[in-house]
């Protein structure tokens, strides 16, 4: 499994390095335009990076299923389950790397904004601000951030898993059917429809248990534990979706694949 | 399955859309022999190999490798060389060797480096920059550098010049011993005839003829190449 992840990352490093260098160049260019340039960059970077991330993650699997270079992976004595899980873990690592780079850009541009607007940077104030954030003085603390990030992570992985499952079904059960690309998209839409209707029913069934939390939320303050409870059904459904669809993809890769 | 049998195929069928690629194929491959899988382009040789290698799923029928149904475990026993250029183009040759070493327990790095040195393939070359002849040699070198029980080489002589063909044939002969089994597919019968123990003639997805190469030569009174021409004359 580690080897599979290692070679996925090796394949990406060149493109990733080019993207970082290009982003750095773009950022330097915007920084020369003062605070406005930095704000523009910080606002648009996550949108562009997010789209490129999704495209790259889909391409990572699609290339192996649809191009001859995929034989290199599928000829190895690794089970279908290992292959699909390694792709998902690589996606998560890539996502975290992009997030980390974004935080670095925020720091760099934050300093630039302060300098451009003539504000003196007082590091003790920044540390105090971070402390306040972590201790909950602003109504949120590290617990909230952790719950939120965990929820976002599960939603993204669930989305990627659904895309991967659609592509796997196309290359296995429906491999002998024409108009594969269109079919793959229809399968993806169908999977989403099934999942959303199942989760809708699930949320409806458990909603009575959430009245007390709704009351707390209406007062404008919510603890990390309550936030976790609110998000738990969504996270639960996403985790179920990830496990089920990864299992289906792994089984099909192992037993039904037609490259 | 007998102890001598390495591969058994029973009633194998493979269909694509509305085309039948393999039809009711039954085959038994014994250990320690070199088999020639012979047939013109489009006869089903590549499809058969891909099914055995686990890259294609058969429509129906059974395939047993060393008594076990196909799975990721059988891929550890089979060293398969696809006819297509399957090696990731952005890798340098040294990266490909490292990939094989990490993925296959039976891969012998020293053997690979020795072969590549002998056939003048620089490990610093990027795969996408290699000529078709060098790529062909690299693919053969990678497949033969595994210490596997079972080798499947799909059209190893395709797209390479006459001199390179000799080099590839030499590599195959040097790698073979009585503990190894090989299936080599080709339509260039004359180049390969001398090393074959058995032949399988595949025509339009159906096995037309199979048997011991020497017995066929004696019984039909002609070379395997002559027999090939006779079988496929109207194909």
From TrEMBL, chain A:
* Record's protein name: ABC-2 family transporter protein
Annotated TM spans: 12-32, 38-62, 83-108, 145-167, 179-195, 227-253
**Keyword tags:** Membrane, Transmembrane, Transmembrane helix
Q: Which organism is it from?
A: Sedimentibacter hydroxybenzoicus DSM 7310
Entry keyword Membrane? yes
